[in-house]
Protein 1
Amino acid sequence: MAEKKQKKNKKSLFPYTDRELSWLSFNERVLEEAYEKENPVLERAKFLAITASNLDEFFMVRVAGLKEQVRSGYKKLSLADQTPAQQLKAIEIRAHEFCTKQYNCLTHSIIPMLRRNGILILKYDDLNEEQRDYLDKYYESTLFPVLTPLAIDQSRPFPLLSNKSLNLCVRLKKDGESHFAVVQVPSILPRFLKLPDSENDSFIMLEDVITAKLQTLFEMHQVKSVAQFRITRNSDLTIDEEADDLLIEIQKSIKKRKRGRPVRLEINSGCDEAVKEFLTDMLDVKDGEVYRCHGPLDLTAWMKLSGISGYDHLRVQPFTPAVPADFLGCDDIFEAIRERDRFVHHPYESFNCVIDFIRRAADDPNVLAIKQTLYRVSGDSPVIKALMRAAENGKQVTVLVELKARFDEENNINWAKKLEHAGCHVIYGLSGLKTHCKILLIVRKDPDGIRRYLHMGTGNYNDNTAKLYTDMGLFTCREEFGADASLLFNLLTGYSRPPQYSAFVTAPDNMRDFFYRCIDREIENAENGKPSGITIKINSLLDGEIIKKLYEASCAGVKINLLVRGICSLIPGVKDVSENITVHSIVGRFLEHSRIFRFENGGDREIYLGSADLMPRNLDRRVELVFPVYDEGIQARLNKILEVMFADTVNTRIQKSDASYELMDRRGRGSINSQNLFLEYAKKRELDYEEE
């Protein structure tokens, strides 16, 4: 008993931020970009839509999970010593405040700015006669046939409405009695309807048209009031991984997602009390789960409007990714990799080199086998098509498709079936673990013998997100990497026990211990007066034991610089705990997704790239890969990348000792936008090569 008390007291010495509140802080940083007047207005609309999409997933997974914990009586404390019920209460307060900020941004900032630039969002009462005539015809020909009014009474229960669907709840009156009905706003039709207007681009929202025409759907009743509403449901899959067929089990679970318990009800602020009470009763939601929105529901719709044609001047300038510097002038990708390791930095440098690598392998008669892990791929994936062609060409193709990639399960199931039909060996991941590592192995017969060519990365093999996310990849044919890759794939596809790798660091087998050793080594070096220091760039920092190690390193005098885009449960700058730690977060045009780990190691600096964030799930419940960078030229380039990112004054927020974030102070530093600089560097290298 005394030992347990001592352990708790030791933990309480270290401060931690609650995971969910840290995530909400991240989404607030994204919302700041929607408020930022220096951003073009359609970019601001895009950022607003991103915050809404992020929040949807947060409720569907994180809030839903906490509610299930409360329901089941689970009371284990979080890293920040909060029960699930306490976490939910804190989330509720912050989420309601955040919702208010979102709609203030839309109604007081974005919509007026759009209007000043000739993009008008009109209400039905604002329309002129020509526009009303146009909508009358559209309603009769297109909208009315699609609408389905759903009466609710003793014989017709409240309908099972789809997750995130937009609906209208209508209060009706007939013979002095109140009745209710629901009309779903059809998602198959455009949410923003373009109106005839010779001077501006004018739009009306689809739900406003339906509201104006509701009486045509309820001719025998009087429409007394109408309210928009939207339900967010628990969408976290519960999968029985011991099932006989994992693919069938996941397909069943996907269907259950649509019927998940409601965790949030959004209604428009004009909703009358009778309708609100009716909806909360029918959906069994509490007052704190109801969000009154002062504007059109479902802000994700503004992503579509942000792409309106003819307004490029209201967006950031489009760019074409450069040819990767390491492949300039290289006609034969295999020969280039034999010469030395090759590095690529997306989206500044084109992802086409990865696609080309697989395509060349698919058609190369000297290639014997291709093995690859796939976590998330695009809907029309050139990577998948190349793998299928390789199998049709007689190569031995083995693909691990992670069926449990959240919200990509259906897409991955479809691709897995197509790969199998093409003759690929498809593995569906390991029981109890998600396979999240990013690795591609090509076995080729070269003139001097069999050689293994590798691509390893920090991001998915997804040609679409490679244009939006910052990620890094390494091409190599180093023998130790090739041998490690074969061992890793044997582990994934067979019954091998966890191997001893020469270079790879993998989870869940040895990654946690690896990071412990690296941090302990820096502590020892600091205590012995040797060069020490830790620089890490990741998406999330949540693991309590890793954070505690970093605190210990800070107390020993190790300088620690962290670049954490999203969740960060570590609190920097706390006296006698984390005074030697800084935490930066970059939110900009591109989503910062790459992971870099650098340790000073007594002056013999080591740099690693990989797929893992420092979270319990990455270290303990996923197959992850972190790998060293040996090439000195690539090391120098990574050092420069880190230097530029930590100097960023435009996109950077710095975490303070109270866990809040503030924009980087530009005084004396000038305006430095790391993402724009990387675009310029990539283009300059390409132009310099062309001019030689």
Note: The CA atoms of residues 230 and 590 lie 29 Å apart.
Protein 2
Amino acid sequence: MKYGLVYFDGTDNIGDDIQSYAVMQFLPHIDYLIDREQLNEFVGDTKEPTAVVLNGWFLHKKFNWPPSKDIYPLCTSLHFSVNDYMGIGYDFLDGIGGEYLKNYGPVGCRDSSTLDILQKKGIPAFLSGCATLTLPERDRKRQQDYICLVDVPENVSEKVLSDMDGTGIRIEQPTHTVDYIHEPLSWQERMEKVESLLDLYQNAKCVVTKRLHCALPCLALRTPVLLLLDQEKDDVTRYSHFVDLLNVSSTEEFLNGEADFDLLHPPANKENYLSERNRLQESISAFVRHTENHQIRDNFRTWQQTDDNLIYLWRINLLTGAALYASCQVDRLLREKNRIEAETFERVQKIAGEYHRDTNILRQYLDEQRAENERLDSVVAEKDSEEVRLNDVISQKDQEIARINLVIQEKNEEIVRINGVITELNDIIAEYNQAASKQENTISSQKNTITSQKNTITSQKNTISDQSNTITSLNDTILTLNGMITCLNDSVTDLKKQLKAREEEIALWQLFHKEMEGYLRREEESSMTWLLFHSKAFKESGFRHKLGLLKRALFRKRDKEKLYLDDITGRIPWNME
């Protein structure tokens, strides 16, 4: 007897491979891998039938039903879905499609929703459960120090990671999503991938998942598992019946801490699945024993007698219905496309009108901007020209300032030299004032002497008055003394005249000094005139000679100033030199 294993070649969910793996453990050998979506095309190498356990999800390509006559099936753990590519729905279970299942019935249904559909179609069926419940426990290879989160929402992962922080429990996050179309694997590699995943589940502390074919294998492996099922989002028909076998919670309940499932101390799984597990194991094992002994039921031969033309006609009718459905869908889509295109055309026309209007506005605006740019360019050119002119003016001003600074520097140097001359003149005047002060001190001393003599005379007069009896004898003495007094008075008068002359001389010197200072201030630019003050001949001359040299140096070409200096020098008593 040949044995075939049903699988889905183009699956994107490794759960399909897990279901195939569960059946593979019962088969004594595998002679054929039969694609689930092409069951009608299977042809064995020999004329003998090929025993196949039909299980899993059926069917995307429903026009490929029923399976080939070369297949001797055990119909168990089946799930029929209304979803497919061609809109056939459950119609493929009518006519020949339903007769096939009736011929090989009763059909084992994976879930209660499939059971309801088959019973409505008049097909004998019973609730068998899923083949993955028959998976044997595996060797425990690791300590239970991790939790598996399998394809759960991101907020669930974040919550578990936060709750387990600091507990020493790590988080594993495998996925059931595969891409065999772009990353093809051999069948052996696909089974190794399944075994690796089952080993991970077997040794986990617990598992939280949204995947049905993660939760059911964990039941079989006795690994605590929580299935997150959201009624408003998930295809609950696939999960019907299994909610009674599993620990189930909604995602919101789990996030709010309302799920009765402690991750650190997870509860044991329910055990009401064991009866289904045992029945499945027995039915599949019996099917294999019978086929190994070539015990084939008569229903196989009955189906062999079915007219192929009827099957082909049924498929044609099914495809015709699918084509009509497709044409209706195409017509609907075309109508929708036409409506969208009409609406799009109206929108495009409206947008085109707005675009034309906006283009005119923009063109007018651009013209205005172009004129404004030309005006601004003209203004900028004028400003550039003005900037050049101002830069020239600034350059000239800078040169003028440099020249003025140079003149100021020369003037400052000249003022320093003039201040030196004034200082020397002040020294001369100070010397003269010192000499005058000495004269004043001499006159003051002589006045004090005269005062003292007057006091002496007064005392003598008092003595003469007191000694009237000696007046006669002292008349000669008095006459002599009167003569002396007269001489002293004359001396005092002469001293007063000399003092007054000295005071007039001092006043003239002060006037000369003041007028010379004014003159020197008026004649700052004639710096060469003052070079004489720094010559050795000038410094070593007497006062009269210095004034003469100064007169010749200053006023040899200026008669008015010369007369002015003559007027000053003529009033100075040069004998003071």
Note: The mean pLDDT is 84.
Protein 3
Amino acid sequence: MSVHVNNTATDMHYLSLLSQSFPTASDAAKEIINLEAILNLPKGTEHFLADIHGENEAFEHVLKNASGNIKRKVGEIFGNSIRESEKKELCTLIYYPEQKLELVKAAEQDIDDWYHITIHQLVRVCRDVSSKYTRSKVRKSLPEEFSYIIEELLHERTDDQDKAAYVAVIVDTIITTGRADDFICALCNVIQRLAIDRLHILGDIYDRGPGAHIIMDVMRRYQSWDIQWGNHDILWMGAAAGNDACICNVLRLSLRYANLATLEDGYGINLLPLATFALETYGDDPCLEFVPRLLKPGKTDEKTLQLTAKMHKAITIIQFKEENRLFHRHPEWQMEDRCLLEQVDTQRQACVINGKSYALKDSNLPTGTMSLTAEETELMKKLHHSFRVSEKLRRHIGTILSHGCMYNICNSNLLYHASVPLNDDGTLKDVEILGQRYNGRRLMEYIGQLVRSAFESDTEPELKAYAKDYFLYLWCGKDSPLFDKSKMATFERYFLTDRETYKEEKGAYFQLRNDASVCDRILDAFGVGGSNRHIINGHVPVHASKGENPIKAGGRLMVIDGGFSEAYHSETGIAGYTLIYHSRGFQLVQHEPFTSTNDAIMRGTDIKSTMQIVEMSTHRMLVADTDKGRELREQINDLKQLLHAYRHGIIKEKRD
């Protein structure tokens, strides 16, 4: 089909700009050939993870082994040519090269022979994982000091007699010059990098685990990723923005699990003022309802436990007061019924809810039930300052903002953390924000804009103040896409004896998400096309031990709550799910709990995972079948118009 240039001023201006990058017809033609070739490469592998909850060791291991994708490739490449134990050793080396090399060198009698065998094996694996990419993209992934050597080894084969000696000399020289360790580490890192083309994190990097800050350090270096914000991420974002209720919630959850590493070691949050206040105010109070939930019993001494319980209670009471202040400030949220601390009668040791009196488990409230005391106010000023001046927290939240939003659409997959608010009949629910009503895609997009406005210096002060407050609604508001429940029963669980009050009714989305027509309605509303389109989200742990299936609505929706947090393992019976989407289709990976990085290195233990084929393509998917393919075809069309303009003298070539 012939290509014609529309001689509008806009088209000519665009082609003139394009000609600066491709100044001659030859340049334009060469790029067209390059892009057409890329369209016919296999689709890159996408990796989906959710609900990491600060479990950095398990997260990093899953990242290193690509949810078993590297182990699968090693098995395919070597088949029966090497023993299973050797495959396991090779995989461990790929995941943890520096540490594994130290163990090998301490035990191996003929290290040069081991180097020869291992380098050739790693080159084979690297050649396989790089086969989906252009040489240019692979080259960009190579470490500068070994770039030329790796590229030579990747594109030369030892079965070519003319090149066998050439390859052998390269490997010999790497070993004799003492660079074998560095070269092996470089190769292993390249394999890890190329095994996954893009990583999608469906929310909740933060909460309860010890290393959210470590995970964020990893992500700042990671090559290609996006995040759909989760409710715990939003809570930390609110704390970083200066929302005191969010600050209290962040502290409370960390104290609840006696896990302060991210706060103190990661972000330098000074908890001494809180400890001092707690001892002064609750020194004689055993704070039994606030004793931390220890994920690993025996790691915390009794004295520390008692202090943590007092700090836990102190910040919880302040949290309720700070939340109540915002609920009263924003009656349009319709959350004033959640101001339960104000309904407490300490003399009667009861709390009145909807006219009914409920017995209290704990009635020792020396700072009162209404506004902050002078001491609590002073404490909050110090805590607020500590969060606001943490440079590392600011950097990490900036990374989450730059790499994410409330939802993402990628290759006919709609990604979000928790829900899309629905009415009981499955239609999209209108949610009012600042006097305007939004639903579905418009709701998600406006919330994303509102969140960003809390951090932008040029935001109008009134809007910025509201945006900062709104983080609390996103955390616990009934119609928040990140919460979507009737209430957050935090107060009831701490203070009331009647367990019936603990119930949190899930929104209509969670009741209807197994209905294919409802999922189709959501996909239509977000403009997601394609014959094999899906919703992928996390947030709610899948109870595999009770027979719950993560694949819902006839395959239209996949729930991949990562289950990384130890707190969920006894409840779900597994350590959650991750998802792999490669050129042949979807594979859901069910994981058992991760022991430790040390076990993985010393004993070669991997996360025991079970792969389930969710959906296989009738043909091997190519780049042409992806969103990237559509972009490339548009670029090719533009370049063809430029080529036409050159050949017909509409635009002059810029030759030197």
Note: The two ends are 32 Å apart (CA to CA).
Protein 4
Amino acid sequence: MQLGEILRRAARRWPEKTAVIAGERRLDFREYDRLGNGVAPLLVAGGGGAPARRWAEKTAVIAGERRLDFREYDRLANGFANFLIAAGVRPGDRIASLMFNSPEYGVVHFANARAGSVLVHIPPLYAEAEIVEILERTRPRLLVVDEAVQDRIGAEVRSAVPAVMAAGSPAFEDALTTDSGAPPTAPGRPPDRTTEAAAPVAMTFTGGTTGRPKGALVSHTARYVSAASTAREHQVTERDVVGVVVPMFHAVGLMIWYQGAILRGCTSVIFRKWDPAEFVAATERHGISSVFLVPVQVRGLLRSPAFDPKRLASLRNIGVGGAPTPPGLIEECREALPHCGYTDHYGQSETGPLTILKPRDTVEHAGTVGKAAEGVELRIVDGDGNPVPPGAVGELVTRGPYMMEGYFGDEEETARYFRGGWGWTGDLGRSDADGYVTLVGRSREIIISGGFNIHPSEIETALSSHPAVDDCAVFGVPDERWGEAPIAYVVRTGDVSAADLITHCTDLLARYKRPREVIFVDTIPRTPSGKTQKHHLRDAYLKR
């Protein structure tokens, strides 16, 4: 079904163009698609191949000193899936995870998919009140927790979920084996695999940069398409050893990057937490060739005392996403690791990857997030949904099989996101004549000062160009005279004053865009994916 979408898109775009010539026979894309639709149900019902069958004895996972081959990994996932079914978990029921990166996280993820349930991914960094709030909203049948967070599972959490199980505990290990220790087989599948593919499989929570996190509900098809797209666009092959560093509770960490690695039959090195020195050592030891990081991790790697290009000689691609790449970082990476490509990746929890900036384009199209990924339908539109011309700023909208089903239990937010058959990302950007997209900010982050629209990213770019600025964030606050005024929080690395930075911005931007105030801080609060939590900064500023 998912691969059929490739043909379906071609049929929509070039319906009367000849798709196939075989001897004297010709078929246009419309007819070719029609024939494929007739056969598709048979193909879907047949099942298809799996990494465990193709690469049975190949190492699938490395985590510290632990290794699992694909056959064993498959067996463990089947075991836990059968446990869920035997426990009465039905298709569409929720289970939840509160885990750091680990092989067990992958087992729970794939078992959930095979059981037909919906996995609610809860960041283990959340406070107890936040965990309870999500549990009460989603009502899972089971919560699987990391052993490291068991001490935070108090009475309130336990009252919000019927059962709690610690990954790695004796109860969890018992759940991985059925039939008196015999290798468990794959659980029974619904007879209509087409329906199964369209069913929801997981829920991840948006970064919460504008307020209360929303649970993006995604289907099997959506995440399969996103994982396949990411593997293709980042040129991941079965020869790669892939680093899994981004938190797996985030959509890009598990269901897009890691799942893409499994799909390609890669060996994945799972890191429980980010540590540049540990990453350098593991890359040297295991020959990691491809990794996905958020920008702050790339910067941390390049500036770490442990950084050594010789020990990173196997690394051929650094995929980056989750937050905008700050100015100069690609150039810094290119100089430090000239043998390694930098593939920038823009997307959302609601959509998967939307645009890709290939390494070959990072010079000529610097400052952009690349072009729409293969198979992605993307437009830049005005407030009424009309496409804007190249160079004009508008909101990015998209549609396709990779889209979420909606926000769980929130019809109002879902209706706000989906309008006119398109998903409105809330991100503002412009494209050039060749289709390369430059992001300029969030629609909800626009600062309207004295009747002028100010995009915070413009000020952040100006501030970041100063050599004494390590990190920054700009947001708007109410202003009696101008309506709103931009405020900048800055992490500095050198001797610079607030007045110096305001002058610096005035030299680079229109005067009305300069920050009214610069406040120096030790760190900028970010989500696990690296996005700035501006609502925390704004709230702290207003409470001063």
Note: The radius of gyration is 24 Å.
